[in-house]
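Entry 12.
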Amino acid sequence: MSEYLKIEPNRNYFITLTVKDWVDVFTRECYVNIVLDSIRYCQQSKGLDVYSYVIMPTHIHMIAGTDGNLSDILRDMKRHTARLIIKEIQDNLGESRREWMMERFRYRDSKGAMHHQFWQEGNYPVELYSMKFILQKQHYIHMNPVKTGMVSWPQHYRLSSACEDSPIKVMPIC
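Predicted 3D structure (tokens):
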């Protein structure tokens, strides 16, 4: 069964979106901005509720939900960001890792045509069933940059809901 089918409507989930082969794409502001813009668009236009998040160099963690179909929103967001990020990598002559990254994302379909895949399959959804579990996942999200040694305190990591100046508006966890 596809992981996309495991996401039930009107529930909140801990979600992980991972770049294919764990390529550290989100070390560059231009790629981060594509994801931030897409998340904000989904919040404003598709009803995505984000409660906590962190954008790490190779992946994104979120506590998210919607009154609609979260699976559809994530699918569309991943498709859109993948297309824009791949194009940005291809067009960015100053990207020192362009050829290496494009090789990591390249694959051949069953008919032999070449394509690019930016995101790994699936969202690894974990339904949040209690406040204790929600707070545990939020702590995990906020501590991710600390555990990797990127910052000493969660609130110092700009691409996280732990940061006071977070670029994404988050909903309070009730």
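Annotation: The chain has one domain: 3-156. Residues 65 and 138 are 14 Å apart (CA to CA).
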